[in-house]
Amino acid sequence: MTEATLGALDKAKLRRLNFHVLGPLLALIVLIILGAMLNPNFLSYGNVTNVLARSAFIGIIAVGMTFVITAGGIDLSVGSMAAFVAGVMILFMNSLIPYMGIGIPLIMAGMAVAIITGFAAGWMNGFLISKVNIEAFIVTLGSMGIYRSLVTWLADGGTLSLDFELRSLYRPVYYDGLLGVSWPIIVFAIVAILGELVMRHTAFGRHCAAIGANEQVARYSAVKVDRARMATYVLLGMLVGVATIMYVPRLGSASGSTGVLWELEAIAAVIIGGTVLKGGYGRVWGTVVGVLILSLIDNILNLASIVSPYLNGAIQGVIVILAVVLQRENKSAD
Amino acid sequence: MTEATLGALDKAKLRRLNFHVLGPLLALIVLIILGAMLNPNFLSYGNVTNVLARSAFIGIIAVGMTFVITAGGIDLSVGSMAAFVAGVMILFMNSLIPYMGIGIPLIMAGMAVAIITGFAAGWMNGFLISKVNIEAFIVTLGSMGIYRSLVTWLADGGTLSLDFELRSLYRPVYYDGLLGVSWPIIVFAIVAILGELVMRHTAFGRHCAAIGANEQVARYSAVKVDRARMATYVLLGMLVGVATIMYVPRLGSASGSTGVLWELEAIAAVIIGGTVLKGGYGRVWGTVVGVLILSLIDNILNLASIVSPYLNGAIQGVIVILAVVLQRENKSAD
Amino acid sequence: QDDTKTIGVAIPSATHGFMGGLNYHAQETIKRLEETYPQLDFVLATAGNAGKMVNDIEDMVATRDIDALVVLPFESEPLTSPVKAVADQGIWVTVVDRGLSQPGIEDLYVAGDNPGFGRMAGEYFRENLDEGDNIVVLRGIPTTLDNERVEAFTAAIEGSGINVLDMQHGNWNRDDAFNVMQDFLSKYDDIDAVWAADDDMAIGVMEAIAQAGREDEMWVVGGAGMKEIIKRIMDGDPQLPVNVTYPPAQISTAIELTALGLVSDAPVTGRFIIGSQLVTPENAEQFYFPDSPF
Amino acid sequence: MTDAVLSLDGVSHRFGTIQVLFDVDFGLRPGEVHALIGENGAGKSTMMKILGGYLEPSEGNVLLDGQPVRFTSLRDAEAAGIIMIHQEFNLALQLTVEENIFLGREIWRGPLLDHKAMQAQSRTLLERLNCPLDPSKKVSEISVPSRQMVEIAKALGRNARILIMDEPTAVLTNRETDVLLEQIERLRAAGTAILYTSHKLDEVKRIADRVTVLRDGHRVLQADASQLTEHSMAEAMVGRELSGLFPAKATPQDETVLEVEGLTVPGHVKDASFKLRRGEVLGFAGLVGSGRTELMEGIVGLRPSTGLVRVGGKVLKPGSVQAARQAGLVYLTEDRKEKGLLLGKSLRENLTLLALDRFTGVTIDSRAEERALSRAIEEFDIRAGDRRMMAGNLSGGNQQKLLLAKTMLAEPDIVIIDEPTRGIDIGTKQQIYGFISRLAAQGKSVIVISSELPEVIGLASRVVVMASGRIAGEVEGAKITEDAILRLAMGLSERRAEAV
Ligand SMILES: Nc1ncnc2c1ncn2[C@@H]1O[C@H](COP(=O)(O)OP(=O)(O)OP(=O)(O)O)[C@@H](O)[C@H]1O
Ligand SMILES: Nc1ncnc2c1ncn2[C@@H]1O[C@H](COP(=O)(O)OP(=O)(O)OP(=O)(O)O)[C@@H](O)[C@H]1O
Ligand SMILES: O[C@@H]1[C@@H](O)[C@H](O)OC[C@H]1O
Ligand SMILES: [Mg+2]
Ligand SMILES: [Mg+2]
Q1: Which segments constitute the ABC transporter domain (chain D) (predicted)?
Q2: Which residues, at least 6 apart from B182, have a Cβ–Cβ distance to it below 8 Å?
Q3: For the residues of C176-207, what is the DSSP string, one character each?
């Protein structure tokens, strides 16, 4: 092969690659420009902070979902799981006030409970899927109903609220931050960076992609398929715990309506970001872009009030489809 | 291989097959026995008719969904599509009363509109998925938002109602029947039988499975892949139209909350019935069993006030998972 | 044994604060009445959509042989003829809150007053704001009921010179309301008051205002009388001057009256409209029920 | 001289910018068997796909009956009577044998499919190939060789005027190959034009009328088969002198490194016991379905099994591929497409998947991976246009080399190679044989399963023969002859034939 042809090849590859890679980024940039044009406050510190901080819950969960989907799975239960974890956390913290008093230790304990509950919930899903070998869609559809129902039951149909004083102490975890960057944003960023690292640069990430691409090949290559698959659900469960830790200080409450449809948003963010729904290929940074796209659509619709609010959903739908058109692979290329 | 081992092998295969095949049926039978034990009226003509007739909407849609999933696709938009089709149908019929008068022709025209609208909606999904080549999950997530939003907008945030007199004329299409079997049951049965026939005994059914199993192989075998894939969405859209024709006389109205979560129920029914979520294998009769299982769970929960209504969702979830445990394939066998 | 009567109760499931409260009151009332009247049986079903509610009602008739039905229609239109079918079988029907779209089906109607709810809030805005003041509105889930409230509210402030800057759906949900309010705050520099139309939404709204540090700039009126909100009115929170009631306990009234109709010879028919009331710091105490989940 | 039915006129082809065919002229005549041979990656499959209507050439024309054609869909090609058997399997695994055979040309009776007719025709086709498979079995449940027979049946059933077969015999045993060649002769007699690729030059010599040789995308030779010997064909392909194919056999040491005792894989293998010594190349022979693959998969923990496996004297934890790998025991699958390689992933990711732990501290050292890839490309002569390409875009033979490289990267002490040279050209075969024998000389032990008897005979110092899921016997040293092996393999298989 001559040098010249290699160069040309590189360019062709690059072009194709770039579309696929840059698609979601491009959509994001278009949205940002649109937002800035529609409203001068769009790029204000306040609005940017709001949007990023709000994205954190879904974002943190979607990072975990990226692993699950890459490994060929799906998890419909994350929204109810978040509600359930929040409920358990609040009940636990309230009930420990008499013993531990209101203070940092109690909040730390609450956080630990959130992670542990998330871990357990994810473990349960993972166990049924990878050991008992039930279709992930069904397991998590089932557990979605179970967690949602349990939190409603725990709250007696109403809302579980964190003790008022305790809440005041905990509140800064959502509203304050470091050097002007609020905590949820920081945590989301850390989770995303770690996630990208794990996906791209560790054996676990490789194994997830291998399992999603062809489980048989993974098995024949001495990959511990069950364990890795299980780990994706456990990781996701723990990240649901982390998301909840950020969520509870925001409004200090949890109810049957907490986290409704988060699963759909998280999955959508993952797919918009370029991860393949049937597994085999995933990218965490894409997911982050996907999450931001979804949050921005809402934000822009609120800021612009262009049309009947009844049509917000339609505009959302159109934008989501358009965002993905940009990154579609050219079919004839294969 | 000696005769003995061959025989053993065959038996093992048979057992595995049977479990896989009989799993959902078994679950259904268990539920029926449970229901009959809980309440003597469970097997009454009235209750059986109720349960079957109300299964018809999801059932008819789920038959179409079986084809979509078998061919490796997914459709999240069917619930909102049903709402949208119902809305369009109602508006259309109401607006034609001055011209056509209230009578059978108007109802027939309304039915035609429902099928045509469903056809168009399905065609749109199919076009974006198979021609523009966008991930089915995203397309139908987008169109789910679009249809839902459009019906809310058409109804001005409220409810679209069929003209009262017209409604009385149309009502028997849900509530009456032939020889004591109500129309929705008859239509559901016809759709299911035709669906099973098409899936099992036509080239289209085979092509769907082939596309879902390995698109490249299908293409290389001169299967018109795009056309077949498109056809699955169009078929599903038309069946949504048929389901709507049965739905409108029942409730006489459509609103933003019509058909919420039908997509999830339809997909769940398909998977419970043994169709493979990633495509390549589907069975319509299994879907029918899946739909019945889901309906019966609700019905049985209403038969006996066993627990707090808050926990209904949890019980549902557990039963769904259990129903599928029965048919899980033995992993080590592969 | 023969004079055992069964009452079916069909209500929407506890998907948000108000409905949570309503579910709570329904269960409490049933428990209480089952103790008082051993000859009464109750069947409670909760539904997440209109279709499921129709199913529940069908099941009650077909398998539980109910003698009376208490129903809070998920939506008016789709529930009308199924409930009518029940009434036509001679079963006693009590309708709660959201009326049916055809008059005369039910034997008893117990409801809050949605237009009144909106009007009362609107009148308060009219009296307490000046011409040229700016407000934003958070609406509920797109429904007829929400439309009625918003129409009445709009009518009440008409001609007052109050500017409605924006209306968006907060879906009676805390998180959605929080997001929408955050964006309103980014978008508008001058907001004098917020009509949140529901106390769950009011909570999200107040949190967003607090985050922006604009508590002194505007006050908020929610609705339905959630205990936390009532408490703050009682305590004289300047940000929450008043509230408009829409009591979830109306379901108790409905079930009780129905039960009474079945056990006594004098059935209670007619319409009981539980008008919305304005909760002020002065009268707040009588609306405070610390044990209710709402 | 008869006119060509299908020909290429000045055809060049590029993937991206890598040119793989250079100005090729070619003509296929009715009633001839034309062999297309060349090294791995020479461009044979590419050329066949162009002829079959699966690829459009970058330059030049395809002529059908002398007229330039451009097929817009595969249906058109099929309608013109052109049928192709692909090198890589072209079957939908979840579908049954019959469904695959009739995919895209189902038989109808009235409005519905005629299952009976399709079942019967499938049976007939398979019988013609001497392959008594149940047509209602799912393809995922049948063995690799059987899949190839299904593929052939699928093509035969389409009544071709022009039949293009890309390495149809790579996965077949001699016996099945014979059946296939008979069929080819029958078709030739009926006037079908047949284009045929194989790396088994004896076959080519036996069946071909004419031979075309491709080297690096250039047509370097076209001649009547009668004018060529196996040796001259090989030389034309490789472009250099080829000496003896097999290296000298190493002598095994006394130490037993692997001991299998009473291993049973339910449904496939019954009570198998054997030993493997250090530095030994142990051959495994047997007919298709004799259970060799399943036995090995049982040993390394890929299939549930009962019985004992000792590695270096220590009992191996059953059912764990990881345990086997840790004990230095690795298995290379015969099914490279479904079990061996991730076709959609890069060469690098494939290469290191099995031995990823060797490249991983906290994170994966991708530069070390790149170095490993360079070494593998060198050592196994993997010809990739671009080292960042997907494994699935490698030519068939090069995929096999990548799979070998992947397995060897795990540095096993004992390696079980199932069909090591499937689809590999003669020059590379020689390299691989050399490689196996060097492994043994280094004190590693190798089990070679091969359906090519010469391979087993040329490499192994001892051969275990399986029949019907049992070990039928074993031959050693000078007693390793084709005759001895076949007698062991057939004796029991005759009995099975009666039983079935
Ligand atoms: N889709 C593709 N994209 C990029 N390169 C390809 C593609 N298909 C084939 N190639 C390259 O084209 C060259 C020729 O491949 P081809 O499959 O025709 O070889 P072959 O002669 O059939 O080899 P083998 O004997 O190994 O089957 C190889 O270098 C291969 O990597
Ligand atoms: N002629 C046949 N009839 C029925 N089943 C067969 C036949 N040939 C193969 N099989 C199936 O294939 C399996 C055997 O696999 P396989 O052919 O891989 O064995 P093998 O001895 O390793 O042969 P090979 O070396 O060709 O791979 C058996 O489980 C059997 O079900
Ligand atoms: O659900 C509604 C509730 O949220 C609102 O506040 O009051 C009316 C109810 O129907
Ligand atoms: Mg090839
Ligand atoms: Mg084998």
Answers
A1: 6-241, 252-493
A2: B49, B52, B53, B174, B175, B176
A3: HHHHHHHHHHHH-S---EEE-SSHHHHHHHHH
CB B261 within 8 A of CB B56: no
Note whether C187 contacts A41, CB cutoff 8 Å: yes
Give pLDDT, residue B16: 53
Q: Read off the tokens for C46.
A: 């909760």
Two tokens, residue B184: 């929705």
Indicate the average pLDDT of chain B: 88
Chain B stretch 181-240, residues whose beta carbon is closer than 8 A to a beta carbon of chain A:
none
d(CA A236, CA A63): 8
Distance separating the N- and C-terminal Cα atoms of chain D: 49
pLDDT beyond 50 at B333: no
ipTM: 0.89
Give the DSSP H/E element, type plus range, for residue D13. Answer: strand D6-15
Closest CA of chain B from D12, distance in Å: 22
Give D31's DSSP letter. T
Which among D238, D393, D394, D395 is the best mutation to test ligand 1's pocket, defined by most ligand atoms within 8 Å of the CB?
A: D395
Judging contacts by C-beta atoms under 8 Å, the chain D residues touching residue B226 are none
Longest Cα separation, chain C: 69
B282-287 average pLDDT score: 95
pLDDT for B328 equals 61
The model's pLDDT over A141-157, given as tens digits with 9 standing for 90+, comes to 999 999 999 998 898 88
Phi and psi angles of residue D196, each rounded to the nearest 5 degrees, phi first: -145, 130
C-alpha span between C50 and C101 (Å, rounded):
14
Chains that touch A (3 or more CB pairs under 8 A): B, C, D
Whole-angstrom distance, CA of residue B159 vs CA of residue D164: 64
Short-list A279, A245, A267, CA closest to A93 = A245
At residue A215, does pLDDT exceed 70?
Answer: yes
pTM of the model: 0.90
Q: Which ligand is nearest to the CA of D198?
A: 1
Mean pLDDT of A95-107: 93
Coarse DSSP helix, strand, coil percentages of chain D, rounded to the nearest 5 percent: 40, 25, 35
Closest CA to B65 of B223, B218, B294, B249: B294
Tell me which DSSP letter residue B58 carries.
H
- Which residues in C lie closer than 8 A to residue B305 (C-beta atoms)? 42-44
**Mean pLDDT estimate for chain C:** 89
- Quick one: pLDDT at residue B13? 53
**How far, in Å, CA of A266 to CA of A258, rounded?**
15
Q: Cβ of B305 and C62 within 8 Å?
A: no
CB–CB of A302 and C174 under 8 A?
no
